[in-house]
């Protein structure tokens, strides 16, 4: 059952932060991000399921998927008014990414990728690597329909998710990348417009259990840039903001300029959980272990918060609308927070 609650934007206690800027960077200064949102919360409350991925082409075309539960409720769609579900697949779903409302892809188990053409979902590809068919496409991203990446892992001989997979679609065929020397699950991958390099985040990995790693991929080579334990305050993440890759390295949010990390923000609070999204370096949304906070170039304020642990698994950001996919570990509820800027 879907229920809606309209919430007034909560402006929380200001958290003191230090923004370390590099004086050599000369570029137009973005406007501070606004915070005057009105929030609507949709509760997608279905038993035995957690929604893990979110993607949207517009505020009237939002998709969320789960990795299990009832097969007719693995795919959720919002048309700007209400959420609906339907029976689409028989396989577990792990990732979703698209380009328009009639060109959307979902990655799943056993190397399966489906495509939505605006009317129906159809099996698009079944990929293998080194003879392995048990690939899980944990996530997807693409610069355009002729440059789409699907990535994840397949198990090693002991059943652990240690063998990374990266596949690229060029508009006519798929190419499987070599991942020799890498171990774990490819969780995020983006192409950085300023230097045309690919950056990826891996989690887990042989001899690095419960850890995160950031790599640069350029000219066929992988270079490790950061590695630490997978624990709050130490782990790493990457996010694409206006075509540029930003990095969370522990409690620092950085950019990569001239092959060096330049700090945009030191998040000096123990609540930060190394997951973030943004429209610009002065409009960043930060996952806290008890809610969502926002950095506007000057300070950090909570937009909403809870008295218990929350997970934010995804976001979709538009000019006046934002969507966040939230799972409350204490209540077991899947929530879609929709923020709309006041006119």
How is the main sheet built? Answer: 5 strands, antiparallel
Helix content: under 10%
Q: What would you call the structural class? A: mainly beta
CATH architecture descriptor name: 7 Propeller
Strand order of the largest sheet: 1-2-29-28-27
Report the portion of residues in β strands: over 45%
Quick rundown:
The chain is mainly beta and 343 residues long. It has strands spanning 4-8, 37-43, 51-58, 61-66, 75-78, 83-85, 93-100, 103-108, 112-116, 121-126, 136-144, 147-154, 163-169, 174-176, 185-192, 197-203, 211-218, 221-229, 236-241, 244-249, 252-257, 260-266, 272-280, 283-288, 291-295, 300-305, 310-317, 321-328, 333-341. Helices cover 0% and strands 56% of the residues.
Can you describe what's shown?
By secondary structure, the chain is an all-beta fold. The protein has a single domain (4-341), classed as Methylamine Dehydrogenase, Chain H. The protein contains no helices and 29 strands. The protein has strands spanning 4-8, 37-43, 51-58, 61-66, 75-78, 83-85, 93-100, 103-108, 112-116, 121-126, 136-144, 147-154, 163-169, 174-176, 185-192, 197-203, 211-218, 221-229, 236-241, 244-249, 252-257, 260-266, 272-280, 283-288, 291-295, 300-305, 310-317, 321-328, 333-341. Strands 1-2-29-28-27 form a five-stranded antiparallel β-sheet, with no helix packed on it. It has a four-stranded antiparallel β-sheet with strand order 3-4-5-6, with no helix packed on it. The model is unreliable at 1-24 (pLDDT under 50).
